[in-house]
Structures are given as C-alpha cells and as structure tokens.
User: Which sequence fits this backbone?
C-alpha cells in the first residue's frame, strides 16, 4: 500500500480524535503503523491517546519510538515530557521540554509545558518567564495566559489586574461557547470574577473529560445490591484521597475514619499516594481497611477493586485538586458517590451524587451552583483534629505548661541565661529551625524517627519552645492582625481593607507568611504605595504544623480572606484561641469561615459588608476589654462547641451517609438532604 494512504489514515485519525471518537482514532493510527511501522507522527499521535487513557508506559514506548525514528521531533519530546511529568519523573520531563526547545526555540507549547513544570514545582518566577515566552511566540494562547494569570495571583502581582480579570472571563466565555475544555482550572475558578454558571460549567467540562477518558475501556456498568445483607448489615464507606499524609486534608480528618462505629459501618480508605511515613498516614490507617491504590495506576483495575469491596458510599476528598483520580468515580464503582471536605466547590460531574455541606456554607438558594444534591451536616461540614493533635494549646500560656513535669523542665530552662531559653529561630535563609537551648536529658535521647516527626510538625515536641513575639519580629505592645493563608487568596480589594484597618488602629501591624517568598515584595510595594511604612507589615516563614498553629497565639486578631477563606488555617487560628473576622461571599470557598464561626458561637465576627469588616476589625484593635472577652470565650468554646469534636462529627456524618443509603435502598433518586 502506498505511503500516502498511511498519511490519510493518520489525518483521518486526527479528525476522529478531535470529534472525541477516541477508539476509532486509535484503530486508524494502528492501521497507519501497519502500513509504515517507521511512521513517527502516528507513533506520537497514538502515544498521546494512550496518555489520555492513563496507559502511561505504553504512551512512553510510542514516544520513544517516534523520537528514535525522528530525533528532531520536537512535538514528541514535548509530549513525552508531559507523560513523564504525569509519572512524577520531574527531571525526565525537564530534559524533554529542554530538548524540544533546543530543537525548536520558537515552540510555544514546549515553553508553556516547561512553565507548567516550574509552576507545579513551586518555581514561580521561572514559570512566569516561560509562560511569557510562550505568549510572545503565540499571543493567542489561552492555556498559557490563564496559567500565567494564576502564577501572578500566587505572588500578588496585580499589574493590570482588572484587565487581566476581564480577559480571563472572555477566554472562558469563548471556550464554553465553542464546547472546549476551559483553560481556567476548576480549582482556580473561585479566584476570578466568573459567574456561578461559568464556574459550574468549567467544572462540568472537566467532569465530562474524565468520562471520555474511561469510555474507551468499554467497561459494562457495575451492578449493585439495594440491601446490606452481603455486608452483614453494615454500611460500607470508602474514602478516596491522594492526601492521606502530611497534607491539610489529613490534618483535618485523619481521625474520622477510625472514629466510625464499627457495629454500623465498615470503612475503607483508598490512598492515591504512597505512604509518606508520617503520623498523619498512620492515623488514617486506623480505619478498618487502608488500600494503597497508588500501586494500581490502571483506573479500570482500581475501580474493579473498589467495586469488589462492595462499597455503598464512595467519598471523593480530592475533587480537582492535585493527585485526584476522578476517572475512578467516572466508572461509578459504588452506587452512591459523594464530595466531601477536600475540594471547595462543585465537581460539575454527572457521576457525583451529593456534596456534604451545611446551611451557612451553602444556603439552599445557592443549590443551582452545584451539580450535586446538597447534603447538610447539622452544624458545619468542616472539622479539625486539633484536639487530638494539639491538646497542649488548650493551656492558658503559650503552650509551655502541658504537664507538671514539662512545667518543671521549663522553670529550669527559664532560670538559665536568656540566651539559652528554648526558642524557635529563623535564620537568614528563611528556614525554620528546631528548638535550641536547654534540653532535658529525656529529650536528648529522642530517636531519629521522633526528630523527623517533630521537625515536620506531626507531634508535640518533648519540650516545647517558648513562643514569643520577638521570635517573629513583632513588637510586644503592638496590635497584631494576622493572616496565615497562602498569598494567592489575597486580592487587591482585600489588601486595601487590611491597610485601611492598620492605618486606623495605632501601633498595629499586619502579620503574613512568605507563602511564597516571592510574593512578599509585591505586598510590601502595594502597602508602600498606599502610604504605609514598611515596619507595619511583617512576614514570617512557613513553619512545621505544630509551630504554625502554636505561634498563632501571639497574634490578636486573624483577618480572613474574603475571596477564598482560610479553611484549615481558619481552624488553626481558632484552636490557638484567636478571634477570626470574615466576610462571606456567595461561593462555597468564601463561606467556610462563617460556618466555622457560627458553629463556634461567634456570629458577631461575620461581617455583612466591607465597611463593617473594617469597623469590626478596628474595634477589636481599639477595645481591649472586648478583645480580651472574645479570646476568653473562644478558648472555652473550643472544647464545648461541636467545631473540634471529631467523635460527634463522625456520628453526624455517618447518619448523613445512612440517609443517602436509605433513599437508594428505597429506589429513590438522590435528592437534597437539607432538613
């Protein structure tokens, strides 16, 4: 057969692929390769489809074959880099992108792919430079533009901010109208002034993409029973997450799986990431079953395994966050599939039935923002395991008086020279160091594993360091307003509010985190442009979890970010006993802090307007009696309210899952559970 026929098959396959007819495209590529086995373009195109299907090793083999045949095939190098990146081979991906750019310096897609690698690795300045190069080479490049915009958001670079927001909205509108996968990621959509319909549609396109990826497997629908006979009358719950380890999600829910009533439910935790060896992973593993799906990359096999366990309620903790495998849910291995806790928005996906939320976070009038049915918890849908992780912070002091023995050790330490006091220091490179100074004999013999756990903030150190304002460059007599979120949650309007507050409250400072370090100069420049002196904004480095929570005690007030609240960080500051002020919007991500505060019993800290937010913050900073009273109430409420009560929360969650099952068992479709 003549070579042109192979070209025709390859071209037809490309058309079929554009139409979403993946299986037909695959067969055409294979036919083209039967005619010309040394057809580099067909190898590369077939590899791209295999990659989309999650068959990464097969994809890699075809990319390598394409490059063997055509060593100067820049596209194949760039796409192979994407495959290696998905396989977590960062260095391999970097080499591929670099080689593609060396072959073709004007290859905009390769520059964009390299930028994305830098972005995912936290190298934001390098990512920005590569995205800008990609846009210089190809000005109409929506993916590169939207990713660049997100990088600029991460570091608070608000140059031409309004124009950037308008362009992002226009790009999303155009892509949705043309039925294309939007360049704005669902998890980033809350940061931009998109309509609720647009945010839901962006998520829906990504959900549909997951369905497209698994349809080629031709798996028949799974069959389910509508009774609990095979499980001995117990409801089987499966929690699926890539974050069972040292991650904010586990910091919140690590004790939930093990707190279920084993007489009523059987719990499976499906880990999408390998064991990181932390105490967080070990606490999750206290569930009846922990299954490591990271060793089963084939989505079809993983879904089969879940189904074989007879799961009744399968819970998605990732949504569209890093490490998600929504393809598992797209195959529907369980009769009821639920969004919970880890993702602050709708999946937009037809394969997710419910989202666990509450009446404050998601008032019923917002139900059409979600593809899922709303399932209300009686208090808040949020939970924190702080009572288990940090009981020492319930003490009145800075945490130094946990037990009588520790108190004696600390008295001994305090009697020494000031330079030998137990402190946590930060050196010039911005890295937090372990406590230094006087250490009791018992603590000197800490084994290596314990030392690592302490440095990661997993457990309470045997002897706690003193926690003083001076360690964070904060004046002892200042009114300290803090926010410990990542900087991307700050937008220009929020910083304006904060600076107005600092200007109105004498001797006050704003305490933020270098999260990331490259955002600090942009915030400081914005503050200077607003007429605020440099010493009124103080930055500290990111700290291990225990120190991160403990040092919140030295602040006076936490100013929440309205655009996207502090979710885990909100729980952290409340556990530290500090008032948090919030301004809820209409998105789920902007209403979590209000839910936390209402559950804790502090509606007076939920503002209704930007002006009220500023006024409440100013009153907190200028009325010491009110501030002292609030702190005392918060310290008490931590142990009396449901907010940090994991056992009670788990019972409520269990009841909610049972309501979902009861509907299914009675042959009823999912419906809102809001009463």
Assistant:
């Amino acid at each position: 057969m003549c070579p042109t026929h192979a070209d025709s098959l390859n071209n037809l396959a490309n058309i079929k692929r554009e139409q979403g007819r993946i299986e037909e495209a695959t067969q055409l590529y294979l036919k083209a390769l039967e005619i010309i086995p040394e057809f580099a373009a067909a190898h590369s195109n077939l590899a791209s489809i295999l990659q989309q299907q999650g068959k990464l090793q097969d994809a890699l083999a075809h990319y390598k074959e394409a490059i063997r045949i055509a060593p100067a095939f820049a596209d194949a190098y760039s796409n192979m880099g994407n495959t290696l990146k998905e396989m977590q081979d960062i260095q391999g991906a970097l080499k591929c992108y670099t080689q593609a750019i060396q072959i073709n310096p004007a290859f905009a897609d390769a520059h964009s792919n390299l930028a994305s690698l830098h972005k995912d690795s936290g190298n934001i300045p390098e990512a920005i430079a590569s995205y800008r190069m990609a846009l210089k080479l190809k000005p109409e490049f929506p993916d590169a533009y939207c990713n660049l915009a997100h990088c600029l958001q991460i570091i608070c670079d608000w140059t031409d901010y309004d124009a950037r927001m308008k362009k992002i909205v226009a790009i999303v509108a155009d892509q949705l109208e043309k039925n294309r996968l939007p360049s704005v990621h669902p998890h980033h959509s809350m940061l931009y002034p998109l309509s609720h319909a647009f945010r839901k549609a962006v998520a829906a396109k990504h959900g549909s993409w997951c369905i497209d990826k698994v349809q080629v497997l031709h798996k028949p629908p799974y069959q389910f029973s509508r009774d609990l006979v095979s499980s001995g009358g117990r409801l089987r719950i499966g929690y699926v997450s890539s974050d069972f380890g040292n991650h904010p999600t586990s910091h919140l829910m690590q004790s939930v799986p093990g707190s279920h009533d084993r007489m009523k439910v059987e719990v499976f935790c499906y880990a999408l990431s390998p064991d990181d060896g932390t105490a967080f992973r070990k606490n999750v593993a206290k569930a009846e079953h922990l299954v490591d799906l990271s060793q089963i990359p084939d989505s079809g096999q993983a879904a089969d395994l879940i189904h074989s366990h007879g799961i009744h309620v399968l819970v998605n903790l990732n949504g569209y966050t890093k490490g998600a495998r929504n393809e598992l849910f797209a195959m529907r291995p369980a009769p009821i599939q639920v969004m919970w806790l880890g993702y602050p928005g709708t999946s937009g996906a037809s394969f997710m039935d419910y989202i666990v939320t509450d009446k404050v976070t998601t008032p019923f009038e917002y139900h059409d923002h979600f593809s899922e049915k709303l399932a209300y918890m009686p208090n808040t849908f949020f939970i924190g395991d702080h009572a288990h992780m940090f009981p020492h912070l319930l003490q009145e002091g800075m945490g130094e008086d946990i037990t009588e023995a520790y108190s004696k050790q600390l008295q001994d330490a305090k009697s020494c020279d000031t330079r030998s006091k137990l402190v946590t220091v930060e050196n010039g490179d911005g890295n937090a160091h372990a406590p230094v100074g006087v250490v009791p004999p018992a603590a000197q013999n800490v084994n290596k594993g314990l030392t690592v756990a302490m440095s990661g903030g997993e457990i309470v150190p045997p002897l706690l360091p003193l926690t003083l304002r001076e360690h964070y460059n904060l004046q002892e007599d200042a009114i300290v307003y803090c926010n410990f979120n990542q900087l991307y949650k700050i937008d220009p309007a929020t910083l304006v509010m904060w600076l107005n507050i600092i200007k109105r409250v004498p001797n006050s400072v704003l305490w933020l985190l270098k999260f990331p370090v490259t955002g600090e100069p942009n915030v400081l420049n914005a503050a200077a442009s607003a007429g605020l002196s440099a010493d009124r904004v103080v930055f500290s480095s990111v700290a291990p979890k225990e120190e991160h929570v403990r040092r919140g005690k030295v602040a006076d007030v936490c100013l929440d970010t309205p655009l996207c609240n502090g979710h885990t960080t909100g729980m952290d500051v409340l556990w530290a006993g500090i008032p948090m002020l919030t301004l809820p919007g209409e998105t789920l991500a902007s209403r979590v802090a209000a839910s936390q505060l209402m559950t804790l019993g502090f509606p007076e800290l939920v503002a209704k307007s930007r002006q009220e937010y500023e006024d409440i913050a100013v009153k907190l900073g200028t009325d010491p009696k009110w501030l002292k009273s609030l702190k005392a109430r918060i310290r008490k409420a931590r142990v009396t309210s449901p907010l940090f009560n994991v056992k009670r929360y788990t019972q409520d969650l269990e009841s909610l899952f049972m309501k979902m099952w009861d509907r299914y068992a009675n042959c009823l479709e999912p419906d809102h559970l809001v009463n």
About this structure: The chain has a mean pLDDT of 91. The two ends are 69 Å apart (CA to CA). Residues 242 and 272 are 4 Å apart (CA to CA).
